Amino acid sequence: MAVSDLFKPLPLLHGPAMRNRFMLAPLTNQQSEFDGTASEFDHIWYEQLAESGYALIQTCATTVEASGIAFARQLGIHSDEHLPGLTRIASTIRVGGGLSAVQLHHAGHRANPLLGGIPAPASSDTVPGVDAITTEEVERIRDSFITAAKRAQLAGFDGVAVHGAFGWILSEFMSPYLNDRNDKYGGSLENRARLTIEVIEGIRRECGPDFQIGWRLSIERYGLVLEELRAVTAYIFDRELIDYLDLALWDSAQVVHEGQFKGKSMLSLFTELPRKGVRLGVAGKIMTARRAGELLDEGCDFVLIARAGIIQRDFPLQVKANPAYESVKMPVMAEHLRQGGLPERFINHLRGWQTIVFPNSP
Q1: Angle at CA of residue 143, ends 142 and 146, nearest 5°
Q2: Residue 360 located in a structural domain
Q3: Of 108-117, 205-214, 338-347, where does mean pLDDT reach its minimum?
C-alpha cells in the first residue's frame, strides 16, 4: 500500500468512522492535578493534538478508582468532580474533527501507596504482606471500570479504551504466574480472562450500541503467555466484543524468540486471526511515514503513534505533507520539545526517559 492509504477512512463496528488510519497512543504524562482533575497543562496538550490530524485520540491512563492510582498527577475518571475537565477535553477533540476515548486504568498490585493507592493483587504471593483481593473486591473493581465508561460517555467521549497491558490489573489477572486464585477469576484461562470479558461486556451493556470500545493488549513480560493471549484475542474477535485492538509492542517489528511460534513476527500472530469487523492497530517504534505504511501491508487497519507524536505533535499532518517523512532522532533536548509547545509538566515527566530526552537537558 502507498503512504496515501493511511488517509483513507476506517469504519468501526460502533459509532463514527475514523477519518484516517492514525490513532494517538495513550501516553502517560503526569500533568493533571493531584486529585486527578484535568489541569491547564492537560488542556494545552489536547488542544495541540486536536489540530494534529489524528483520527482517534486516547487519553493517558485514567484512574477508575482513587485507590488504583499508579502515578503522581494521573488523570482521573473515578469521580463526578472530574467531569468538567473531561468534558472540556472531549469537546476540544471533537472540534478538531477527531474521535476520542478515555483509557480506563487500574494499577492492581502496582497501585502506589505513597499516592493513596491500595495494592490489589490477584495473588497473595505478589506483594509481601498483602493478601489477594476477595471475589467481592474484584467485582467492585469490574463495576468501577463500567461506571467510569458511563462517566466518559456523559463527558462526551466517543468511547473508552480498556487498559489490559503491562501488568496492570486486567493483564495481571490474565497471567498464570500472577494469578493463583481458586475462585471464578482464577485457574483456567477462561477464568483468568473473565475480569477482562466482564468489563468489556458490562461497558457495552451500559453504554449502548453507539459507544466505541478499544482494548490495549501487551504480550511480553509480566508473566503473560503468548499462546494464551492469542486464544483470548481470537475469542474476543469472534464475538466482536470490541471495536479495535490496540496491540502494544515495544517494537512493531519484533520476532518471537521461543516456543511454537519462534521466528514469526509477534504482529503476524494477531493479524492472521479472523477478526470479523474488529479493527487492529499496533504501537511500537513507528517513527516514519514508510513504517506506518508498511504496517498496513502487514495486516494492520491503523497505526498508533506514541513517541513520534511527542517529538512532533502533528505527526499525521507531517506524513500527509511528506510521504518520506521521518521523525527526528531521539533523544532530543528539552528545548526542542519546549519550542514545539509541549507543556512543561509533560517535559518534566519525560526527563525520566533518557531515550527521549537527553539527561540534564535544560
Answers
A1: 95
A2: no
A3: 338-347
* Residue of 102, 99, 90, 105 whose CA lies nearest to 12: 99
Tell me whether residue 262 is exposed, middle or buried, using C-beta atoms within 10 angstroms of its C-beta: 0 to 12, 13 to 18, 19 or more: exposed
pLDDT of residue 187: 97
pTM: 0.97
* Domain range for 104: 3-328
**What are the start-end ranges of the H helices in 208-328?**
226-239, 266-271, 289-297, 307-311, 315-321
The Cα 332–Cα 336 span in angstroms is 7
What is the CA 222 to chain-centroid distance, rounded? Answer: 16
Q: What's the structural domain count of the chain?
A: 1
Burial class (CB within 10 angstroms; exposed 0-12, middle 13-18, buried 19+) of 257: exposed
Q: What is d(CA 141, CA 162) in angstroms, rounded to the nearest whole number?
A: 13
- What are the DSSP calls for 19-34, one per residue? SSSEEEPP-----S-T
Rg of the chain taking only CA atoms, in angstroms: 19
Q: Which residues contact 87 (CB under 8 A, 6 or more apart)?
A: 155, 156
The span from the first CA to the last CA of the chain, in angstroms, equals 42
C-alpha 259/C-alpha 126 separation (Å) is 26
